[in-house]
Design a protein that fits this description.
4-stranded antiparallel β-sheet; alpha+beta; 3 helices
Length: 126
């Protein structure tokens, strides 16, 4: 599945923060990927036996004060392994950092520095 996100948000930081929540034992969390003006929200819930339910929902206008939750269209859902998800997100973030470096990342994302703190938290073994 392909999800677009814009430099106006901080998608990687938000994804890492949600993943840290899962690593610390949260049973539910969510993150979002802002586009202009649409976007996706990724919901994680029902964590049990090292697995969780994931649902990705696309919204037409995440910036609307009145309708930011209106008209969501489910794009994908299923159960995934929590440890595998955490490992995959950590590896992806490490690959982004290795490829672009902190300076290159900031140049590309303009308003969002690389989320080093969140990656460091994710790299710890709970």
């Amino acid at each position: 599945m392909h999800i677009r996100t814009s430099y106006i948000g901080d998608a990687l930081k938000n994804l890492l923060a949600a993943t840290v929540d899962l690593q610390l034992g949260s049973s539910a969390t969510f993150t979002h990927f802002l586009d202009e003006p649409s976007g996706h929200r990724m919901f994680f819930s029902g964590v049990a036996d090292n697995a969780m339910y994931v649902q990705i929902v696309e919204f037409d206008d995440l910036y609307s004060e009145d309708n930011r939750w209106a008209g969501g269209v489910p794009r994908w859902h299923g159960r995934v392994s929590v440890p595998h998800f955490i490992d995959a997100v950590r590896a992806m973030a490490e690959a982004v950092l290795e490829k672009h470096g902190e300076e290159g990342y900031l140049k590309s994302w303009v308003h969002a520095p690389f989320p080093s703190r969140e990656l460091a938290l994710l790299q710890r073994n709970p």
